[in-house]
Amino acid sequence: MVVRLRKTLQKVHIPWKNWPGLIALGFFTLIIALAAVQHEGELEPVPLSRMAASTVTRTPFRAQTFTPTPSFTPSPTWTSTPTPSPSATFTPTMEPTLPPPSPTELPAEAVIKGVVGHPQTLALSCESRSAVDWAAFFGTKIGELEFLNALPRSDNPEKGFVGDPNGVFGQIPPNPYGVHAAPVGALLRAYGIPAEDERGMSWDELRAEIADGQPVIVWVVGSVWWGKAVPYEASDGETVMVAPMEHTVIVIGYSPYSVAVLDNHLVYSVPIERFLSSWGVLGNQAVYYR
């Protein structure tokens, strides 16, 4: 703008040194003119009735009421106050109920004298030999072969004698084997002897018989050896447990450490642990006096 003004003044041949005064005079004149225009152009007051009809109604300004924001007051730290639980009522533990003591305490050891054994006649006639030697102790004389021939025959040793009495020792049914306690006990009763056959006789029951002076026939493996039973299904459909080298001996004594047996005509002792294992193979079978 200043450049344009300078060129204009140059055209009208006004020296540059007189320009500041002319410029000041021009501004002064412009201010006076503007004041005159403003005075002449003032509007006449408008009647109130006309103003109400033409003006826009405005919502009066309402001063905003300042509501102070409440300052944050931290909540108190929650402290757990444990509620005391009622004290447990102590119930005394009941002492285990013990079995009633035996009417007579078993002695630590016992031996029966006067039981006489004999060698068995046939390879598998041990049950008959044990039965007639046991019966002789109680006063009944029976021949070994007589007793053997009187036993029923069956392929089930729980029902009768299995196989040829002269067969090879150590086999299991249906091969030549022998007979279990039930047929032996039944035949002894048929001879009038109060014999009881049992499966599952306990060690205490056996000792009680010996302490009472009554020998007991038991079913073991070999000469009271370790062994194992196996299942066998007989022709009648019954499954029974049998053991290779099934054998019988007569228990005639015991001590805290050993068991004395009569095996045919031999008397010897075996450790209790070995005896109980061998006797348990066929289920603790026994024949005893009643």
From TrEMBL:
InterPro entries named in the record: Peptidase_C39-like
Biased composition (Low complexity): 66-96
Residues in Peptidase C39-like domain copies: 126-262
Chain residue ranges for the region called Disordered: 66-102
Pfam families xref list: Peptidase_C39_2
Gene3D superfamilies, per the entry: Cysteine proteinases
UniProt xrefs under PANTHER family: LMO0724 PROTEIN, PEPTIDASE C39-LIKE DOMAIN-CONTAINING PROTEIN
Identification of the protein by name: Peptidase C39-like domain-containing protein
Source taxonomy: Bacteria, Bacillati, Chloroflexota, Anaerolineae, Anaerolineales
